[in-house]
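I hope you will forgive my troubling you with a question about protein structure. The matter concerns a single protein, recorded as an amino acid sequence and a row of backbone structure tokens. Please examine both parts with care and let me know of anything in them that strikes you as inconsistent. Here, with my thanks, is the record as I have it:
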Amino acid sequence: MAKDNKALTPMMKQFYSLKAKHPEALMLFRCGDFYETYGEDAVEAARVLGITLTKRNNGAQDPTDMAGFPHHALDTYLPKLIRAGKRVAICDQLEDPKKKREAIKGKKGLSEMDKMVKRGITELVTPGVAMGDNVLNYKENNFLAAVQFGKASCGVAFLDISTGEFLTAEGTFDYAEKLLGNFSPKEVLYDRTKKKEFDRYFGSRFVTFELDDWVFTEQTARQKLLKHFGTKNLKGFGVEHLHNGIIASGAIMQYLEQTQHTQIGHITSLARIEEEKYVRLDKFTIRSLELLGTMQDDGSSLLDVIDRTVTPMGGRMLRRWVVFPLKNVQAITDRQDIVEYFFKQPDFRDCVNEQLHRVGDLERIISKVAVGRVSPREVVQLQRALEAVGPIKLACLQTDNDVLKRVGEQLNLCESLKDRIAHEIQADPPLLVNKGNVIADGYNEELDELRSISRNGKDYLLKIQQEETERTGISSLKVGYNNVFGYYLEVRNTYKDQVPAEWVRKQTLAQAERYITQELKEYEEKILGADEKILALEARLFNELIVYMQDFIPQIQINANLLARLDCLLSFAKTAEEHAYVRPVVDDSDVLDIRQGRHPVIETQLPLGERYVPNDVLLDTSHQQIMMITGPNMAGKSALLRQTALIVLLAQIGGFVPAERARVGLVDKIFTRVGASDNISLGESTFMVEMTEAANILNNVSDKSLVLFDELGRGTSTYDGISIAWAIVEYLHEHVRANARTLFATHYHELNEMEKNFSRIRNYNVSVKEVDGKVIFLRKLEKGGSEHSFGIHVAEIAGMPKSIVKRANVILKELENDNAGVGTVGRPDARKIEESREGMQLNFFQLDDPVLSQIRDEISGLDIDNLTPMEALNKLNDIKKIINP
């Protein structure tokens, strides 16, 4: 609130009183044809939106900051604010200013506030609670999440208000963190008294909002949920025993009420996330396998390659499938059967594909029906979607596939709704109801009569124009209309002397005069009265239709889910046909047998004419549990590891795979330890990140898991790295619980020795060929370990200066001659390397300078292995001060 409330103008008093209801939100205050922001809101809006920051006199001594934009640009600017993580309170005018002026005209004793147009907050839009198409990504869910911290477990809930999906789960904090990573909520709610716990377990990567602690009580939460669903308990949803999950779910319902989202009839159930049904993928795996996004701006993710869905809801479902692979053989087989049926029955595939193109976003349209924000055009789109259901239902019922027949049986034609929309709504209505011409002719008698008056009245106006033109001889005379004067006769100045005396002049323009007549005013009242009644009646009839449509929400939500599922499986078939994928055998064995497997993403990015080099991978827990893979950088080790994981994942989401053939024994968890980009910026060293992720794998691995290690141990000294890598591989081999199928890519050739001592370890290398001193990468996996890294060759390919490449070769030969390479207990003979230098600059540590000696001591005392980037920068600054005190 402003400091001197008495000095404020009435409008600013109104602004501050409304702002006080949601002080944390940026308020868009409707003022005439503009949305305006004031004070700190204006500064922030100007920064985010790139609009001009100016001043407004608010009645106080100092003008307040102001920034605004035309009201019709809301759809342009609101998404920018939401995507910037802002909460936006939309304050609209709740009455017509013109009618307000007429209503108070002549009244005495009214205060300045009484004379103000009434305003109120009509919507609070936040990143997690958004319904507008301009804010939402059409192929992504927009989840709001809530977290409840219990004593020994954590509850988490997710709601997408745009689709009605409402889910909850309970488990360890690690499990909750994994779910938050998989669902990628746009906003997370938590108890404001638990901020330390939230930051400790989940960090700062989410947009969050704190709620009062009373919201996070089981009694409050249960009451909210039972009241909404109209049930006596939550047993029917299968969540009765999830006490923390119920609290998190109730917090979401409370938040919807606080943000004025109370029309939520499309939220028809609360489902438990059944952890036991899905493969565990942690955030490191999702990131390193690039399942949903890439680390490079111009790269492609797995989802980019396999997403051939034609409906937004199909795209959203596929995105979910990718991060929730199945662990049930029958469920996977059911999906595969439908994909194969699409392959074998092209007529069926074409029929479904054609009809799906007509469906649109059925899921979000029916959600808009529930909240009363559906447009006339979207209602017509809903009708077209229902028309597409019929041919798909018939085609599914006529198949010999049991799963497809069940789909056909569950699809609901909603005949009465479809027919009513077709009968009531124009075939091509406007976007907004208040534009008129929404309701079809012949549907409502009263409406037809009013339209007749309006149309005939306008014809009569044209008749007046013609009669007055003939009577006065003014050939340029025309009838016009504006909001101020209503209908008028406009005469150019050259003819104004011919104007009859009974005409009343109302407006003078530069080139013309405008007049009214008694006859004209009488017909204006008839016409405008009819038009106002038409708009009011159309709005009422349209709202009645929406209420009728709300009875069909459950059936249409089922339709949307079934059509999205067909869309996903059809997408698998399209991808398989385009890229020559095959149906894998998925069973409960411990065998992973991939023949001529390919990386699904890399093969689509190769230059035209270049063929991806396929490779075989065979893993089981009896004979070849661990494949130790050596070879130089750029040879293809990392690609091989990732393609193996992606093939397993594709198989377990029910898709076909890029291989000649494949057998996938069910995997319960996929772990990857590749790269170290995460957390380094937060002050953790490369080695600490490596060890944290490796510890996570070893603490959660099982004998049904798939584990990928790529260059473990690079962040520390050679001997430490070898020792840790050896110990980890040994642990995976020797511990029954950790007997996971493992691919271990490494530079440490010493690890090849493990094959001699451990029965289920086999050495492999990604082959290279050296011709005339040059290295050719063959990218073929072969049996046996590699003894060379070819690192200097890689440096040369990367464009390293020739002098450095030459020098490196000299040092390498010295090391090899002295047997001082990696894996021996000896150390390089620094003196011999020094003597071999030609044309190189003097050794920094040989210079006889006290300042440089001090710098040398500073550097020598550093623990490089455990130095964080921030500590390194601080130390560099200290050294700089030694040089320039």
Remarks:
- Residues 614 and 686 are 32 Å apart (CA to CA).
